[in-house]
Write a structure and sequence with these properties.
Number of helices: 8
Number of domains: 2
Strand content: 5-15%
CATH architecture of the largest domain: 2-Layer Sandwich
Strand order of the largest sheet: 1-9-8
Number of strands: 9
CATH topology of the largest domain: Alpha-Beta Plaits
Radius of gyration: 26 Å
Largest sheet: 3 strands, mixed
């Protein structure tokens, strides 16, 4: 659960994530904004998005959003991935990945409604894995552990949602895409934070998975079968005819 009303933009979550995962520092330049880095990278699994609201009563105001993989209940990346086991779901609901099985097709990038997956220097998928090893060891994800304002809360999903529903905040991700593993408690509409109002998996993904991909596989094996049939029925005749011609020539 991410309670955006508590976030102060300190980026402790970013630092804790990089320390725990031992990822390289991202080289950045000042582009006239407070965000740093300006986007997720293969070495940055979560970051704080700064949304400036402009002049409001009392001066300039900000919204902060922790941006990361949402660990969708119905994950487009998993649906479209052609490599078995490259993207998979753990018993805790995490959408995890195995770099050794990643074939660098980048289909997961197109399938993600939140534009999250990144590819590292070896052209392998990279994203938040919700500190899978920490959770399996009975610990809290590093980001939630480091958050000084309890913006990030980790625990039983149903209990966290039930508690958040007693507030006046807008809950985002409760039922979307099969239920998101990361639910936001927002102070306004999702569009204000740069989130899609109705996140969905592109229709083209289902078309690829359920129609084009099976037809492609069928076509591939059909071509192989045609080649074998051609060889069995026609190929030997050509060889026999050529051999017979050579015998007559002699």
């Amino acid at each position: 659960m991410v309670d955006t009303s508590r976030c102060i933009g300190c980026r402790s979550c970013q630092v804790a994530c990089k320390q725990w995962n031992k990822t390289d520092a991202d080289k950045t330049v000042n582009q006239g904004a407070f965000e740093n880095p300006r986007d997720l990278t293969p070495a940055l699994y979560n970051r704080i998005r700064f949304v400036e609201l402009g002049e409001e009563p009392g001066g300039v105001n900000w919204l902060f959003l922790n941006e990361r993989c949402m660990h969708c209940g119905e994950a487009g990346c998993m649906k479209v991935c052609p490599s078995p086991g490259a993207l998979y779901r753990t018993k805790d609901g995490i959408v995890a990945y195995d770099k050794e099985k990643c074939i660098s097709c980048k289909y997961c990038v197109s399938a993600c409604p939140f534009n999250v997956p990144r590819y590292d220097g070896n052209d392998k998928v990279s994203k938040c894995h919700l500190c899978q090893s920490r959770i399996e060891g009975g610990m809290t994800p590093a980001c939630a552990k480091a958050c000084p304002t309890e913006t990030l809360k980790f625990g039983n999903r149903s209990e966290l949602i039930a508690k958040a529903q007693t507030t006046k905040k807008t809950l985002y991700g409760v039922g979307d895409l099969g239920g998101l593993g990361v639910v936001y408690a927002l102070e306004g509409p999702p569009e204000k934070y740069g989130l899609p109002a109705a996140p969905h998996i592109p229709v083209s993904i289902f078309l690829w998975k359920d129609v084009i991909k099976p037809l492609g596989i069928l076509g591939f094996w059909g071509s192989i079968g045609a080649m074998l049939l051609h060889y069995v029925t026609i190929g030997p005749k050509k060889i026999d005819a050529a051999a017979e011609k050579e015998e007559h020539h002699e």
